[in-house]
C-alpha cells in the first residue's frame, strides 16, 4: 500500500532565518565600513569613544542597511520572482505582508536607536531611511533610473555613514577635507551599484526598470562603472598629494592600480566577471577608503599640533 502524501500548510509566520535572509547581512559591510572610516578620519575610533563608534557601526549596518534591504525586497517582489525566485518573499518563506511589516518595524527601531546617539546621528539616519524608501517605493522609486538610483545608494552607503560618524564625533560639521573624501568615495560607489545591477538585467528589462546595464548594455555599463570608480580614487590621490600626505596617496594609488588590472578582465566579459569584480575589485576599493581615513586623521593631528 502506498502511503498518502502529506501536504504541509504554507507558512504564516516567517522563521527567524528567513527574516535574517530578508535583512541580508552580506550587504551590511559597506555602510559599517564607511562609518568606521568616518570615525577613524577624525581620530574617534580609539580610546573612550570606541563604544559609541561601535553603536554607530551597528546602526549603519544591521539597522539602517537592513531596513533598506527589506524595503527593496518588498517592492521588488515581482522582479525577484523573475530574476531570483528563491528569495524569501517570492519563495513564500516570508509570507503575506510580513515583508512590509518588517520594513516598517525596522525603520522605527533604527530611528529609536539613532535618537540615543545624538542629533547628528538621528538626522543622518532619518535621511538614510528616507532615501531607502524613496529608492524602492512608489511614487519616487528612484531605482527606475540607474543614474539617479545608483547615486542615491552610493551616497547612502558610503558618504552619509562617513560624514555621520565624523560629525557625531566632533559634535559639529566635519572639516572640508573629510567632506570631500567622503563624497568622492560615495561617487565611486555609483560604479559599484552599477556592477550590482548585472545580476538582474533580465528582470529589470521586462519590468521596465532602466538600470544602467539595461540602458547601456553590459560592456557600456562595465566601462562606465570602471571609469567612475577609478576617477573618484584618482581625485582622492590628487587631494592627498595636495594635502602633503604622499605615502597615503601612494598606497591608494597602488590599490587603484591593482583595480585597473582587474578592470581589464572585467571588460573582456562583463556579464561573466561582474560578480567576481564586485568581490575582488571592490575589496581593494574599500581598503583604499581606510588608507584615506588614516591620511585625514594624520592631517587633522598635524593641524591640531600646529594650532597648539
Question: Topology, please?
Answer:
Blueprint: H1 16-23, H2 29-41, H3 50-75, H4 77-83, H5 98-115, H6 119-136, H7 146-170, H8 176-196, H9 201-207, H10 212-242, H11 246-268, H12 270-307
Helix pairs in contact: 2-3, 2-7, 2-12, 3-5, 3-6, 3-7, 4-9, 5-6, 6-7, 7-8, 8-10, 8-12, 10-11, 10-12, 11-12
Structural descriptors:
mainly alpha, 12 helices, 0% strand, 308 residues, Farnesyl Diphosphate Synthase
What would you say this structure looks like, in words?
This protein has 308 residues and is mainly α. The protein has one domain: Farnesyl Diphosphate Synthase (Orthogonal Bundle), CATH 1.10.600. Helices cover 76% and strands 0% of the residues. The longest helix has 38 residues. The protein starts with 15 loop residues before the first helix and ends with a helix. The N terminus is likely disordered.
Please outline what is shown here.
With 308 residues, the chain is mainly α. 76% of the residues lie in helices and 0% in strands.
Overall outline: globular
User: End-to-end distance, in Å?
Assistant: 91 Å
Average pLDDT taken over every residue: 91
Helix content: over 70%
- Gyration radius, rounded: 21 Å
How many separate domains make up the residues? 1
DSSP summary: helix tally = 12
SSE pattern, N- to C-terminal: HHHHHHHHHHHH
How many strand units?
0
In percent, how much strand structure appears in the residues?
A: under 5%
Structural class: mainly alpha
Largest sheet: none
Please name the CATH architecture. Answer: Orthogonal Bundle
The level-1 CATH class: Mainly Alpha
CATH topology: Farnesyl Diphosphate Synthase
Uncertain segments are 1-9
Amino acid at each position: 500500500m502506498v502511503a498518502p502524501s502529506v501536504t504541509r500548510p504554507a507558512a504564516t509566520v516567517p522563521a527567524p532565518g528567513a527574516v535574517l535572509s530578508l535583512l541580508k547581512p552580506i550587504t551590511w559591510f559597506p555602510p559599517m565600513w564607511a562609518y568606521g572610516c568616518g570615525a577613524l578620519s577624525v581620530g574617534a575610533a580609539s580610546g573612550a569613544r570606541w563604544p559609541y563608534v561601535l553603536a554607530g557601526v551597528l546602526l549603519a549596518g544591521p539597522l539602517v542597511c537592513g531596513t533598506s534591504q527589506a524595503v527593496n525586497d518588498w517592492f521588488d517582489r515581482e522582479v525577484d520572482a523573475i530574476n531570483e525566485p528563491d528569495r524569501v518573499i517570492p519563495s513564500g518563506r516570508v509570507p503575506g505582508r510580513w515583508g512590509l511589516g518588517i520594513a516598517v518595524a525596522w525603520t522605527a527601531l533604527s530611528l529609536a536607536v539613532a535618537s540615543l546617539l545624538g542629533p547628528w546621528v538621528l538626522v543622518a539616519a532619518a535621511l538614510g531611511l528616507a532615501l531607502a524608501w524613496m529608492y524602492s517605493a512608489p511614487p519616487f522609486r528612484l531605482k527606475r533610473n540607474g543614474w539617479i538610483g545608483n547615486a542615491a545608494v552610493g551616497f547612502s552607503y558610503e558618504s552619509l555613514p562617513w560624514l555621520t560618524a565624523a560629525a557625531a564625533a566632533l559634535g559639529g560639521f566635519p572639516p572640508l577635507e573629510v567632506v570631500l573624501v567622503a563624497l568622492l568615495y560615495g561617487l565611486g560607489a555609483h560604479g559599484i551599484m552599477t556592477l550590482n545591477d548585472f545580476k538582474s538585467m533580465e528582470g529589470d528589462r521586462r519590468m521596465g526598470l532602466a538600470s544602467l546595464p539595461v540602458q547601456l548594455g553590459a560592456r557600456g555599463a562595465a566601462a562606465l562603472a570602471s571609469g567612475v570608480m577609478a576617477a573618484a580614487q584618482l581625485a582622492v590621490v590628487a587631494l592627498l598629494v595636495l594635502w602633503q600626505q604622499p605615502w597615503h596617496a601612494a598606497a591608494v594609488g597602488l590599490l587603484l592600480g591593482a583595480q585597473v588590472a582587474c578592470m581589464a578582465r572585467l571588460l573582456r566579459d562583463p556579464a561573466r566577471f561582474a560578480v567576481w569584480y564586485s568581490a575582488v575589485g571592490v575589496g581593494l576599493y574599500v581598503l583604499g577608503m581606510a588608507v584615506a581615513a588614516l591620511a585625514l586623521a594624520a592631517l587633522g593631528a598635524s593641524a591640531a599640533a600646529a594650532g597648539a
